[in-house]
Amino acid sequence: MRCKKNFNLPVSLAMRAAIEQLKQKPISFGSSIETRQYLRLQLEQLEREVFVVLFLDNQHRLIANETTSLGTINATSVYPREIVKAVLSHNAAAVILAHNHPSGLAEPRNADRLVTERLKDALSLIDVRILDHVVVGQGESMSFAEQGWL
């Protein structure tokens, strides 16, 4: 059996164990606290900014989790057309958006709010809701839903 090289950043043993536990049961995103914890495990240690979409069914259970954009240390490009295509291919009823700020601050930039509005407009045309957009920093995260921005 050939060993497949993994070029992702090193993940701590505790983090791997937590991710494996999450894979064992259907993941449902009923609260923003659970959502933020799940996303912090994935995004907090990354050195480059990434944009992730969690594709959910009608009961807000995870269908798929995809990195839709990989950027630099302080930015990533998000294309609404590509997100809409992915939503349709997964037959998702709702999505949760997320990205990290490698700088460590979870405070959203104006560009973050603008892209969220563009995605909200695009996805509303196909009756798909954005439940949240989470920004992950070092040791902290911020939820657009909790701020009342969605």
Q: Would you kindly provide a written description of the structure presented here, covering whatever features stand out?
A:
The protein is of the alpha+beta class and 150 residues long. The protein has one domain: Cytidine Deaminase, domain 2 (3-Layer(aba) Sandwich). The chain is built from 5 helices and 5 strands; from the N terminus they run ααββαβαββα. Strand 1 and strand 2 form a beta hairpin. The chain starts with 12 loop residues before the first helix and ends with a helix. The N terminus is likely disordered.
Short synopsis of the structure:
The chain has 150 residues and is an alpha+beta fold. It has helices spanning 13-24, 32-43, 80-90, 110-124, 144-147; strands spanning 50-56, 62-70, 94-100, 129-136, 141-143. The chain has a five-stranded mixed sheet with strand order 2-1-3-4-5, sandwiched between helices.
